[in-house]
Specification:
alpha+beta; BirA Bifunctional Protein, domain 2; Rossmann fold; eight-stranded mixed sheet; about 20% strand; RNA-binding
Length: about 425
Amino acid sequence: MSETFRAPIGTQDVLPPDSHRWQILVSTFADVAARYGYGLVHGPMFEDIGVFLRLGAGTDVVRKEMYDFHDKGDRHVALRPEATASVARAYVQHRPVTPWKVWCVTPVFRYERPQAGRLRQHHQVDVEVLGEADPDVDVEVIALGADYLAALGLRRWRLVINTMGTPADRAAYARTLTEWLRDRAADLPAEDREKVESHPLRVLDSKRPETQEVVADAPRIADVLDQGSRDHFARVQEGLRALGIPFEIDVRLVRGLDYYTHTLFEFQSEALETAQSTVIGGGRYDGLVEQLGGPPTPGIGFGSGIERMLLACDAEGVLPPPESVLDVFVVDVTGGAAARDLAQELRAAGLRTDRAFGGRSMKAQMKVAGRSGARVAVIVGEQELAEGTATVRDLRLGEQQTVPRDELVARVRRMVEAE
RNA sequence: GUGACCGUAGCUCAGUUGGCUAGAGCGUCAGGUUGUGGCCCUGAAGGUCGGGAGUUCGAUUCUCCUCGGUCACCCCA
């Protein structure tokens, strides 16, 4: 009977004033995306599960982390485990003119064990460009990410890039690597040994030191890339250098989604002490649209976790302290009708206004007014009510004056605007 | 999915070698003024000591299970 509930494991409520910080991130991202000419897209938070299965059977996100279920019409659907597949599906469905440059904000669901910087429902801002294979697009997308970090005021991060080449390059490399690893499997920890046949690339970026020792002189992807892939990657590096965006190449950077081709990149916060430090991650996915039933269409994009970016912002102390969300607070000890009417009048004039309810004492109402952060209190007592006036108090200076009602809005506005 | 640590009021935490009505600070609410906040003083509300089972004369304190939290692995934003 008195059972209580909490937010589900790995989810969180975002309440004021913290929700304000969210808005800062999203609006900052929106500004940057607009500066690059990207349009906003909204889409369903769930899709036919087939959309996500195209991410690849070797992907944990698909294999074991999906929130999937059968709806009342027995359709097998899944909550978004990432944004790219949904956007690609929308592209196939609507066939917009290319290059299609879009961004979105979306919740993302993954059935994982939560830890610092990782949730079962988190939120991402995301950009995607479909229909353009030019390596300059890779550069633009990465530059957009760097500008986002800069706009937030973050300085302690590094950009790591790598290339997977074409799907053929990738497959060839995986074969080469498997063969090479087979001979050394005995030296690998059991967890990584299991991946030799199934996901050889994942052995490369294992965190285990024993594995890193073995893999140190493994064959490199660069050794199998075709000329086109080499040229593409070279052009990306050239672009980043030209734009003054510092980066490092990490030949062991793999990333978990199977659909990546050519350029892969991650922005990692160096201010975060946690194990999860990637704040932006993405790459090119030239085969994905085709796998979703569309025409051969190149694509590239990245996702950036809002919660994790907030952790990075905290670690660098870059977000401004929350400012007051109110201009005026109306105190009325004559029954509340005056507060009701004056508050609406002030709001109609564009002033951010709140009031006390419940007919509390003036002292109690003043306390709420003080706590509200409003610059001005408008006070109506029996005296003001009788003479058609209101008392206007500057809560910061502690000075007040009684003015006729028809001068109220103008007076309050002047005080709010005054420094 | 695996492992470690943790679980006392809304929040941050005391506490008892197992034993009378479980405490503090902050917060909330009400007073200290006849119409006034931020400081100060007083008081009040608020906890089945996460839940269940066991050991015991007796458990918030010991054991087990479970749920939840945190962090790490895995994986990823």
